[in-house]
């Protein structure tokens, strides 16, 4: 009996990456709303209200996506490499002026003004592709929450087709199509991502609730980023 109680306590104390992300998103978005509200109160001219994409929050979410892809398995190595390179590109620029570039919109505005935003190795492209990759994670987790009993390959493929495929060239699409054949089963994915016993009905219910919470928090942030990219005319760039 004592052993079971100890295991239960350890399970409660141990947080999955998704649970940690929910806490971080909740706090960061609350701070962002407070900052935006204060700016609106102090300035009646909406044209002077600066958009904000917090660097550390965004990079934290992208690193969470890397962990998610790792747990899907080596099949997603190509996508993972692209995400990792784009994260590094943003981090390198951020390090040159961490105060100014704590808001990723400042990097975007600078590149647009210089005419560099649409170049292959721009930070603007990095921001755009990372946002699309986060779209993929939202779609994947949302579909998994709803269709968890279906074939995992189909869930991942559907998420890819909706979010990334429209912007990928033939080579990238072909590589992903081959990789999808090696996606693990949904039980393996569930255990890896949420670190639970999938045979426990209570755990399964909690997972669904947590995935729904995470998605509901992340979607408005991604919509805001897409809106910012669209305002600067860089939202429809395709892979080169």
UniProtKB/TrEMBL annotation:
InterPro entries registered for this protein in UniProt: GLTP_sf, Glycolipid_transfer_prot_dom
Domain Glycolipid transfer protein: from-to ranges: 54-194
Molecular function GO terms recorded: ceramide 1-phosphate binding; ceramide 1-phosphate transfer activity
One term under GO cellular component: cytosol
One protein family per Pfam: GLTP
Name of the protein in its database record: Glycolipid transfer protein domain-containing protein
Source organism (scientific name): Cannabis sativa (Hemp)
Lineage: Eukaryota, Viridiplantae, Streptophyta, Embryophyta, Tracheophyta
């Amino acid at each position: 009996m004592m052993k079971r109680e100890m295991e239960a306590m350890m399970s409660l104390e141990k947080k999955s990456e998704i649970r940690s992300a929910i806490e971080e998103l909740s706090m960061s978005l609350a701070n962002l709303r407070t900052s935006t509200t204060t700016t609106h109160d102090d300035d009646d001219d909406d044209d002077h209200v600066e958009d904000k994409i917090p660097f550390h929050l965004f990079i934290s979410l992208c690193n969470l996506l890397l962990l998610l892809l790792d747990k899907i398995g080596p099949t997603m190595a190509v996508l993972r490499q692209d995400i990792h390179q784009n994260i590094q590109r943003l981090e390198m620029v951020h390090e040159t002026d961490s105060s100014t570039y704590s808001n990723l919109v400042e990097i975007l505005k600078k590149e647009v003004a210089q005419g560099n935003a649409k170049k292959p190795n721009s930070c603007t492209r990095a921001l755009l592709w990372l946002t699309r990759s986060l779209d993929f994670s939202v779609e994947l987790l949302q579909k998994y929450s709803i269709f968890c009993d279906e074939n995992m390959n189909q869930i991942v493929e559907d998420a890819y087709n909706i979010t990334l495929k429209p912007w990928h060239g033939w080579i990238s699409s072909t590589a992903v199509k081959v990789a999808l054949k090696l996606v693990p089963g949904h039980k393996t994915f569930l255990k890896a991502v949420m670190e639970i016993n999938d045979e426990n009905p209570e755990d399964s219910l909690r997972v669904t609730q947590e995935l729904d919470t995470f998605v509901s928090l992340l979607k408005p942030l991604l919509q805001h980023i897409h809106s910012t990219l669209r305002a600067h005319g860089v939202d429809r760039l395709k892979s080169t």
